[in-house]
C-alpha cells in the first residue's frame, strides 16, 4: 500500500512540475521548411534541456500576415513574448508602445560585441529594440549559358542601366506573344516589386523619404527609375507584365525561363538545393549603376513585447535564440547572411561563394526607412507601383498619388 502511495505522490509531483513550467512564446517570421525543421528538431529541445523549468512555444507566421497578426495580438495582450520582424517595422511598434528597449539587457546576451555593426539595425531614436537574427539582400543574377548563346561575354555582367537593357534584349526569346526566355524577370507585385524598384531609385541618386519622414520618391530620380522599369516591360518587352511563375520549386532563372533576375540569398540557397545544375550556370553580381550602385538589404531581428509576463524567462530565451550556435543554425537553414562576425567563419559560409558575394554586396546596401508608418506607406507605394508596371497608370502620376496618400499618414 505504501508503494502505491509513493507512486501516486510521484505522479502528482511530476504533473504539478509539468504544469508549473513557464512558457515563453516566440513567433518566427516565414515558413521555410529548413527553418522549421531546425527550430523544432534541434533548437527547442536544446533550450528546454538546458532550461528544465521553461517551455519554448514557437509559431511560424508567413511574412505577409505578420504585421496584422502582431498588431492585433500585441494590442489584445495575447501576442508572443518574442517575435521576429524586419528592421523597418521597429518605429511603428515603438510608436504604438508595443515593444521594449533592450539596451539594459544586451549585456546578458552571449558575446554581444560579436554582432559588430549589425546591432545598429535594431536602433530607433538612440535605443535598441531588436537583436539581429539574419540578413537578406538582393543581388542581380544571370545565366552564363544564355549569355554565351546570345554572343555575350559571360564574364562581363551588365554594368549600367543601358547594358542591362541591351543584355536583356539580346537574351530574350519569344514564341509568338509568349516568352520562351525572358531577358529579365522583374517582380510586378508585392514587397518584391517595392524592394527591387527601390534599388533602381537609389541607383539613380534618389531615396524614399527625407530625414523628416516626408516621401521624396516622386522626385525626377524616382520617376525616371520607374519609367525605366516600366519600359523594360512594355516598350522593350524583355520582362513579363504578369510576372513569371516558379516551376515547382524552381525560380524562373533556375528553370531556364529567364536570363537575368534579382534574387536574394534564400533564393540562391533554394536553387542550389533543387537545381544544382542550373546553380553552376548562375553568376551573381552587384546591381548595375546609373549614378551609383545599390542593393536592398535588411536584417530581421527579435523584439520583445512590453507585455511579456516573465521578463527573466523571456531574456533567457532571447539569449539562446541569438547565441552563436542558434545564429549559425538559423542562417544555415535559410542560406542567409549571419549578423554575428564569428558566424561568417562558419563552414556553410566559407563553402558558399554565392553567400560570400552577398556579404561583399553589403558595401552597396540600403534599407527601407525606419519610420513609424512604414508598413502602411509601403503598402500604398506597392499599390501604385503595381498600377504603373501593369500599364494602367503613368509612372509620374502613380508616384505623385502614392506620395500624396502617404503624406496623410503623418
Report on this structure.
The structure is a single chain. The chain is an alpha/beta fold and 410 residues long. It is built from 16 helices and twelve strands. Helix 15 runs antiparallel to helix 16 (395-407). The radius of gyration is 24 Å and the shape is globular.
Which key features would you list for this structure?
16% strand; two-stranded antiparallel ribbon; alpha/beta; 44% helix; 410 residues; eight-stranded mixed beta sheet
Describe the structure in brief:
This protein has 410 residues and is of the alpha/beta class. The chain contains 16 helices and twelve strands. The protein has helices spanning 2-19, 33-50, 63-75, 90-95, 144-149, 161-171, 190-203, 220-234, 265-274, 276-279, 311-321, 324-334, 347-350, 353-361, 374-389, 395-407; strands spanning 22-29, 54-61, 82-86, 123-124, 127-128, 131-143, 173-175, 178-181, 260-264, 282-285, 295-304, 365-366.
Amino acid at each position: 500500500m505504501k508503494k502505491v502511495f509513493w507512486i501516486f505522490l510521484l505522479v502528482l509531483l511530476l504533473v504539478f512540475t509539468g504544469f508549473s513550467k513557464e512558457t515563453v512564446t516566440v513567433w518566427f517570421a516565414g515558413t521555410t521548411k529548413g527553418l522549421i525543421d531546425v527550430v523544432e528538431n534541434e533548437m527547442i529541445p536544446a533550450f528546454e534541456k538546458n532550461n528544465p523549468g521553461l517551455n519554448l512555444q514557437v509559431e511560424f507566421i508567413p511574412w505577409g500576415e505578420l504585421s496584422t497578426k502582431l498588431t492585433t495580438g500585441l494590442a489584445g495582450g495575447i501576442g508572443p513574448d518574442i517575435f521576429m520582424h524586419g528592421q523597418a517595422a521597429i518605429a511603428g511598434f515603438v510608436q504604438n508602445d508595443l515593444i521594449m528597449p533592450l539596451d539594459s539587457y544586451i549585456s546578458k546576451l552571449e558575446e554581444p560585441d560579436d554582432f559588430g555593426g549589425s546591432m545598429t539595425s535594431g536602433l530607433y531614436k538612440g535605443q535598441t529594440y531588436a537583436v539581429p537574427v539574419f540578413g537578406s539582400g538582393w543581388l542581380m543574377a544571370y545565366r552564363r549559358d544564355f549569355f554565351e548563346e546570345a554572343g555575350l561575354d559571360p564574364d562581363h555582367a551588365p554594368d549600367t542601366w543601358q547594358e542591362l537593357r541591351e543584355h536583356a534584349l539580346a537574351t530574350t526569346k519569344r514564341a509568338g506573344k509568349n516568352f520562351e526566355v525572358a531577358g529579365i524577370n522583374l517582380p510586378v507585385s508585392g514587397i518584391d516589386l517595392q524592394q527591387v524598384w527601390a534599388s533602381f531609385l537609389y541607383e539613380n541618386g534618389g531615396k524614399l523619404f527625407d530625414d523628416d519622414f516626408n516621401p521624396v520618391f516622386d522626385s525626377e530620380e524616382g520617376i525616371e527609375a520607374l519609367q525605366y522599369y516600366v519600359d523594360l516591360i512594355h516598350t522593350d518587352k524583355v520582362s513579363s507584365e504578369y510576372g513569371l511563375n516558379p516551376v515547382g520549386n524552381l525560380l524562373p532563372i533556375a528553370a531556364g525561363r529567364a536570363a537575368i533576375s534579382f534574387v536574394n540569398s534564400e533564393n540562391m540557397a533554394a536553387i542550389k538545393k533543387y537545381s544544382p545544375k542550373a546553380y553552376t550556370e548562375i553568376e551573381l553580381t552587384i546591381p548595375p549603376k546609373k549614378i551609383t550602385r545599390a542593393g536592398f538589404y535588411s536584417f530581421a531581428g527579435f523584439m520583445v513585447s512590453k507585455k511579456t509576463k516573465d521578463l527573466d524567462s523571456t531574456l533567457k530565451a532571447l539569449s539562446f535564440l541569438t547565441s552563436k550556435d542558434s545564429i549559425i543554425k538559423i542562417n544555415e537553414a535559410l542560406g542567409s547572411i549571419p549578423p554575428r562576425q564569428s558566424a561568417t567563419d562558419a563552414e556553410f559560409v566559407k563553402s558558399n561563394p554565392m553567400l560570400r558575394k552577398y556579404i561583399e554586396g553589403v558595401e552597396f546596401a540600403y534599407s527601407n526607412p525606419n519610420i513609424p508608418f512604414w508598413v502602411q506607406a509601403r503598402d500604398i507605394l506597392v499599390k501604385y507601383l503595381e498600377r504603373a508596371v501593369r500599364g494602367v497608370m503613368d509612372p509620374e502620376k502613380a508616384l505623385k498619388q502614392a506620395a500624396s496618400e502617404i503624406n496623410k499618414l503623418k
